[in-house]
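Read as chain and fold; for instance:
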Amino acid sequence: MKSLRVNADYETELFYGHSGAAIMNQSLEFLTFFLETNPIFTAKKYPPAYFEYIESIVGSKPTLISSGEFKNWWGELRDLELERKLNSKVTSSELCISQLKECNIQIIHTLSDYHAPESQVPMIAKNPYGMSGQKFKLFTPEALISEGPEWLKKSLPHGPIILEPLLKRQKDFSHFVFPDEKVICYQNLIDHKFQYRGTLFRDIQKPSIQSLAFYSDIDPRNWETFKHQLALIQNYYSSFPSEFGYSIDSFTFQGEFHSQIRTLCEVNFRRTMGRVAYDLSSKVASKLTWSLFLMGKSQGSKGGFQFLHKTLKPILLNSENESGIVILSPGDTRFEIFLIKARDEKSGLECLRKLKELLPDGEFAIEL
């Protein structure tokens, strides 16, 4: 059985040709301990108590290996040219312009491509090769006029820039398309820096767009337009082979009079946190329909896994609790990651409240 390497540094290796820091992969590789039976390729050591806890949740302890052949688990890294194209925000932005008629997006390769926006609104400049929230720069209308051209002049030698209006973002959600064309929908939790912090399933058995908490807040006509546009996007990306599937990220925003939908924010043509959250939620306590995958501040300085296990013991998921928390992280990585499983939303939110109470400095970016 070939070992699996969680190459969470996928974008770094794909677009820049070198591996990221080991801490990047080690900050997520432990998620496979709850999902996979193959050996996991890693040089990191984990505490025995953590492995015993994993066995109590999924029935077996992980096997680790630090040499030999491995298979990438996060992104393929096989056809690099094609993978760069499909993961680049240039490609998704081109689709926005050509298929969705989003005329307020600029793809800037050289300074001559840039033109000052007609409307005086804040703008966001994106590196098309980074993960969500990485290497973004915000411009006020005044700063874009005074600083924008010079900033672009310095930035463009390193690659193209995507420039688009900074919308009044409300809720983030994604559709994940599996290789067999199965599609699921879920809400993502994003912090003020546009970085991923969690995924919510209100009904893991039926993870459809109708299960989103804010579905009824949007005009049904907008959802019809969204579904048409989503089909166009899916038709394009599904024409390419994929081992892991891909996500189409969207969000709602405050329009002039009511909430609107931005159908295509970006596409991640690889495994994603939302896909992992779904797989974990489907496997662990699968009869509990409400599920929240959650990232918070590291608690490593307080005693690692032993501290987490002792502190959260009253609310841990076990055979006696119908709702509770699963500790996913080992207590010594960049983030603490948890899974909350509950029989319904009320129970899940109460469990979340207790988690925040027990870990007051967890910095959970939560707005459900």
